[in-house]
Amino acid sequence: MRILIAEDDLANAKFLSKYLGKFGEVVVTKDGIEAVDAFVNALEYGEPFELCCLDIMMPKIDGYKALSSIRSAERKHGVSRMLRTKVIMTSALDEASFDSSVASDDYDDYICKPIDIMKFNEILKNLDII
Fold this sequence. Notes:
- This protein is an alpha/beta fold.
- Helices cover 37% and strands 19% of the residues.
- The protein has 4 helices and 5 strands.
- The chain has helices spanning 10-20, 32-44, 63-76, 117-126; strands spanning 2-6, 25-29, 51-55, 86-91, 109-112.
- The protein has a 5-stranded parallel sheet with strand order 2-1-3-4-5, with helices on both faces.
- Helix 2 (32-44) runs parallel beside helix 3 (63-76).
């Protein structure tokens, strides 16, 4: 499995990379533009990501705009809704502050940071990642 992590905080990026590395190849990007570029390049080379963890608050473009670009790239490349990349949005915003109506049809789940491993495992199980 190929996994894309878009995270501008080094500690969070290392944590996610180490944890998800046991499930497959991990690519880490530090901002939204790098994430979209990595995603599109993977599609064009026929090596798409199966999972993407997108931080909501990133430099250059935020996670919502990156997600919109990712979904647009999938449509452009003919990826069906059933085969599209699973996306987990991550944020330091607590769940009460998170606006789940924004792009709610485009992401698969959301988790607050710091990431609770038990909750994260449950999300991964529900998405058939593990």
